[in-house]
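Researcher: Structure prediction, please.
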Amino acid sequence: MSASTKLSSSVKALCFLAESYPEPKTSNEIGENTGINASKLRKLLSLLSKGKIVTSNQGTKGGFQLLKAPKNINLQEIYCTIEDRKAFHLKVSEINGQDEYDYLGYFDNLFSTIQVEIENKMTKISLLSIMNDLKIKSKFK
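Model: Predicted structure follows.
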């Protein structure tokens, strides 16, 4: 699953949990209501649970619940929880031969700057703001 698909699926699942809060939801219920494959969803929810964004309870009344208010969850936190790589990563390979210009250094610096900008922007986007933009009501108080 690509990074963007993992992020959008995670956000979709978290929005559903916020919308149905405080009632816990199983991965099957979340999958049925979001259209996300249940096995892929379980992997994402497991990561989100380890990242202390959701909690998982066993048993007949078990399922997943948000641990934090949507206003306190941002895209960068979600992304860092489900991914082990940076949001914007391009590998600049060695340029063949000698050159008087430092192309490799130029692009490394450029990509580093872009990475910082992406992370700063993602930090400013909360789950609640996404829900508001999509007109999804949160029951989380």
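Model: Residues 89 and 111 are 7 Å apart (CA to CA).
Researcher: Thanks, that helps.
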